[in-house]
Amino acid sequence: MSTLKITSQQVAERAGVSQSAVSRVYTPGASSSKKTVDKVRKAAAELGYRPNVLARAMVSGKSRIIGLIVAYLENQFYPEALERLSNALQQRGYHVLIFMAKQTTGNIDSVVEEILDYQVDGIIVASVAMSSELSERCRAAGVPMVLFNRSQDDPNMSAVTSDNYAGGRKVADFLLAAGHRKIGYIAGWEGASTQRDREAGFVAALKEEDVNLHSRAKGEFVMAKAVEATRKMFAEDPPEAVFVANDHMAIAVIDTLRFELNYKVPDDVSVVGFDDVPAAGWPAYNLTTVRQPANRMVTNTVDILLDQIENQQSEPRRITIDGPLIVRGSAHIPEGWNT
Amino acid sequence: MSTLKITSQQVAERAGVSQSAVSRVYTPGASSSKKTVDKVRKAAAELGYRPNVLARAMVSGKSRIIGLIVAYLENQFYPEALERLSNALQQRGYHVLIFMAKQTTGNIDSVVEEILDYQVDGIIVASVAMSSELSERCRAAGVPMVLFNRSQDDPNMSAVTSDNYAGGRKVADFLLAAGHRKIGYIAGWEGASTQRDREAGFVAALKEEDVNLHSRAKGEFVMAKAVEATRKMFAEDPPEAVFVANDHMAIAVIDTLRFELNYKVPDDVSVVGFDDVPAAGWPAYNLTTVRQPANRMVTNTVDILLDQIENQQSEPRRITIDGPLIVRGSAHIPEGWNT
DNA sequence: CTGAAAGCGCTAACAG
DNA sequence: CTGTTAGCGCTTTCAG
Asked: Which of A238, A277, B136, B293 suits A291 as a labelling partner, its CA being 20 to 30 A distant?
């Protein structure tokens, strides 16, 4: 076996070739004779040699590290996304350096600087607000960035989201078709494009049928606040149906309704969420929701980012992926409803 | 502002000092006159300079990167741990490079090699089986490793776990005190020390009261298998109480009991889990469980690892942290029970 | 305290 | 195809 770090130089000596010959054997585009390859591989195996990624990064300028900024790992949507993101990247020879950001912002600037210090090849920002200055900073540093599950007005930023506006509309159509007219909305954090788009689509579709939001409360994407929002909303003139900006909060809403306010869901009130996190499918919630196609969102995110990294092709792209309404049992199902 | 990467050389020129002077200003242990520091900082700020972590890593031999191997992000215990781990490390100047491992093993070897390629300063392995050869490989490479939430017989491996054996005992005592005698156990993956220790403690405490396991089924720490295990266990001569090896499965067990088999929990059957994940506290489950003190486990893991990295002090340590039984409503509460 | 010089381990021309 | 020669950006002796 080996001791500590083995260098290409040591392998070269053992194989009786030059150090650069060793390098070539391990460099994708380079060419070496079968004979050299064999000698080198043999020596390397005996020594337990593996190329030093950092040294390679220094000279090549490519670290094969992707910085990932995340915030809310408590919302089940993110661990799932993180796992897929990491796997997809791993498969394509990249690895993920993780950075936790409190959405308290403020420190987000320093987080980006820290990431840049590692000479990452690209950055994925999951559900964190990105200022234009920051994205500008990354562009200046030559590091492509793509937003995951969040989009920004800035047309210079690449972003991948599900079609939140269309999703909001689907929920409205569904609730309306079920005959609901007194409809409430529990909002997420206003700084998030997902919150704004979902609500906009929802309200727009309602309006087309001359229905206005019966009530609205703020949940900020936080369970505890969703609980308070529910209490407030049902304190007087309760709605017949509630659309909650994401599943994470919808779970808290359902629990509060059932165990604190003694409502039956869906008998007394219909509840619909957004995301289709694993818990939405658990029998206790059986939540009707709009699915965000995590796998396709991830695939697109990775494709865009690697394309920008590997082909210099720097035109930002913004992709929106349609997600289906998953009809389960937390809301009345309109008669004759299908799909 | 700036364009692309600024080097210490450029800062040096602008500040009118040598490149090494700039380096010293950014090197913790080094000394420079206030005058130099000021000039350098000023020039650096104007240029937007930040030291290249990779270059620093090359020469210093310290990358300040910690490799983290994880597998089951679906079990809520892990995202939480990951978040805390990353935050704790970030705070101490390290960053986390993430590697997903399928517990299908097999590829775990290659994952470790990949990690080593990045010249990480240390490795944290969360709930993944580690062979002695692998740990030996890391030791040979001079990279300390600590197991998180898993322990191995190998006394050379540092490991941090909660006291799973004691936890199992607590559950047994609780169930016994409630008067249960027909008690079932739904096991996790047998390869995990957590599974084995929890069961061993549980069975031992039962035996002390002359009670044997009434039934046992395998859930493998997977929800779908836990559902099947529940069906099988309750198909004939159902137990009065079930201890499930972790909360993730316990959730599936409760749902299956309630919505498929029409049992009332806890009226017809008591269910107790292990971990105290966020969902255990959700009203729908209100799960009685043994808490794994994630924060303390993380703190200890980080302390041990950094100690080994920074002080060469290589004696492996194995820490076990006691976790309390959190009594909620999914199991009968013995009369006069307190704490 | 400060500058000059020597690399860390590797890739990328460049002649042969 | 192969060896030689330059560095990548930074830390670290080593004289001064």
From this structure: A238
